[in-house]
Design a protein that fits this description.
By secondary structure, the chain is mainly beta. It has two helices and eight strands, in the order ααββββββββ. InterPro entries: ChsH2_C, ChsH2_Znr, NA-bd_OB-fold, Thioester_dehydratase-like.
Length: 138
């Protein structure tokens, strides 16, 4: 069976003002999150205001790009290529909505360790997604 990146086109992301550093880092193979200087909470999707305390004192920070699958769903209906969407809880704390790629979708499990990989959208934008790591212990 073809892998996600071989058979499924990735739509271009909707760009919001301020997203440029996030996608520039993704093009370099880095996943960024934001950290609030006021409450010290880490959050994703990066935004201008902290979703915990509403402070504007937020800074970009590198993520390790590793975490665990919190929950997932595999879509196999229709004529398109099957795919897996998941919530991944990063080791830094935030839980993000993403795709699980480059793996047999029948082996995806809650609690499985994953790492970030970057896939290219139709226009060439690097999109962070996740794939299981070799050691799948949570």
């Amino acid at each position: 069976m073809p892998t996600f990146s071989e058979a499924r086109k990735i739509s271009d992301p909707a760009m919001n003002p301020g997203d440029e550093p996030y996608f520039a880092a993704a093009a370099e193979g880095k996943l960024l999150v934001k950290v609030c200087s006021s409450c010290e909470q880490t959050h994703h999707y990066p935004r201008a205001l902290c979703p915990f305390c509403w402070s504007s004192e937020v800074q970009w920070a590198d993520s390790q790009g590793t975490g665990v699958i919190y929950t997932y769903s595999v879509t196999r209906r229709g004529t398109g290529t099957p795919y897996c969407i998941a919530y991944v809880t990063l080791d830094e704390g935030p839980t993000i909505l993403t795709n699980i790629v480059d793996t047999d979708l029948d082996t995806v499990r809650i609690g499985q360790r994953v790492r970030v990989v970057f896939k290219t959208s139709e226009s060439g934008t690097s999109i962070p997604m996740f794939t299981p790591v070799a050691d799948n212990t949570p």
